Amino acid sequence: MTHASAPIGVALLGFGFAGRIFHAPFIATTPGLALRVVASSRRDEIATAYPGVRAANSADEALASPDVDLVVVATTNETHASLAIRAMRAGKHVVVDKPFTLTLDEAHQVIAVAQETQRVMAVFQNRRWDSDFTGVRAAIAAGEIGDVVEYWSQIARWRPEVRDRWRERPGPGAGLWFDLGPHLIDQALELFGMPDALQATIRALRPGATVDDFFHVRLIYQTREVLLTSSMLAGEASPRLVVRGTTGTLVKHGMDTQERALMAGDRPGAPEWGRDDDPVIVHREGAEVARRQAPPGHYGHFYAGMRDAIRNGAAPPVTTQRALEVMTITMAGFESASTGTVRTLDPG
Predict the structure, then answer these.
(1) Do 236 and 144 belong to one domain?
(2) How many structural domains compose the chain?
(3) Is 33 exposed, middle or buried (0-12, 13-18, 19+ CB in 10 A)?
(4) Which residues of 232-260 are buried (b: 16+ CB within 10 A; e: fewer)?
(5) Which ranges of 193-282 does DSSP label H, i.e. alpha helix?
(6) Closest CA to 202 of 221, 174, 163, 169
(7) 135 lies in the same domain as 13
(8) Same domain, 161 and 31
């Protein structure tokens, strides 16, 4: 195991879109972490992007690495639970990409193994550190609009053609609700905690779509309405977030810039990383419209939190309780959509 003053060795399982774009760049640039091995068949890409990092032929080979203390599971969704459990039983701490698991039973099993093995385990909810969300969150916390009564959160895209990729083909964990739903759920829970109930519409709307590509999910609280929505047929420039309170309204149009920068090949630490020039707009009666600069986004805060949890015993950046809450709402969304009913949620 790693000495307290040495970097924490990391193994990344998977070098597809999630592993290559969202995980590897932040593991490699977070002080106190060292990317040691990547389990993937893309050996040439790994060697080019991360010279000196080993390419493993299998997850088992990566898990057996003695210089690894943290394993990041960025593989296809149906493998998340089994790989997380195998990693913890091999003595490793674990990060699991979202969605955490495919069922609540699996989620409970993974958490039970984390408790049994006393390993740190967290789900990668990187969009807590989106500039758009952090900007709106700060304005709410500052009392800019009083008590929140309506919250409308959307990540929408214009992708009218169904693509030939596993997320858009029938199979375990496919579809938009499993893909983007956990992000929007986690953000809502960060602000408001667990709702009392939910009502969901989850559908496939594009011609030729075989998995859901649209969702409209209402989280029901006693004192506010929360709407989470997404579509692959959004040709308009609609707001990312609209939040109405008792004394005003917040509107945020532009999304966080990190994904676009990462896809262009930029690395965290580049000048003005995560800068968002689109302001949080504040509307209040009797006052001029105000524009607040959104804080820069930075997904590296998640990995800094994992480092501190492993090294110093700090709380993990995403708790197991939150992981269960997000999974509870995710699965209740599917149940509500399939039955056409409002689903009551267990606050425990």
Answers:
(1) yes
(2) 2
(3) buried
(4) bebeeeebbbbbbbeebbbbbeebbbbbe
(5) 258-263
(6) 174
(7) no
(8) no
Q: Report which residue type is found at 136.
A: V
Give CA–CA dist 160/102, Å, rounded.
27
Q: Which segments in the chain show pLDDT lower than 50? A: 1
Which two three-digit tokens encode residue 47?
């060697």
Shared domain check, 243 and 106: no
Report the SS3 class of residue 266.
coil
Among 103, 124, 145, the domain boundary falls at: 124
Q: Based on the domain organization, do 165 and 103 belong to the same domain?
A: no
- Which two structure tokens, joined as six digits, stand for 42? 């893309």
Cα–Cα distance between 259 and 274 in angstroms, integer? 9
**Domain final residue, candidates 95, 124, 153:** 124
pLDDT in tens, 264-316: 999 998 889 999 999 999 999 989 999 999 999 999 999 999 999 999 999 99
Question: The domain that contains 216 carries what CATH number?
Answer: 3.30.360.10
CA-based nearest residue to 309, from 23, 37, 38, 94: 94
Summarize pLDDT for 76-126 with one digit per residue, the tens.
999 999 999 999 999 999 999 999 999 999 999 999 999 999 999 999 999
Burial of 149 (0-12, 13-18, 19+ CB in 10 A): middle
Domain extent at residue 272: 127-297+330-344
Q: Identify whether residues 63 and 140 lie together within a single domain.
A: no
Specify whether 136 is located in the same domain as 265: yes
Q: What is the C-alpha separation between 153 and 169, in angstroms, rounded?
A: 26
Statement to judge: residues 150 and 291 lie in one domain: yes
Q: What per-residue confidence (pLDDT) applies to 347?
A: 56
- Rounded distance, CA 291 to CA 278, Å? 9
Cβ-contact 162, 205 below 8 angstroms: no
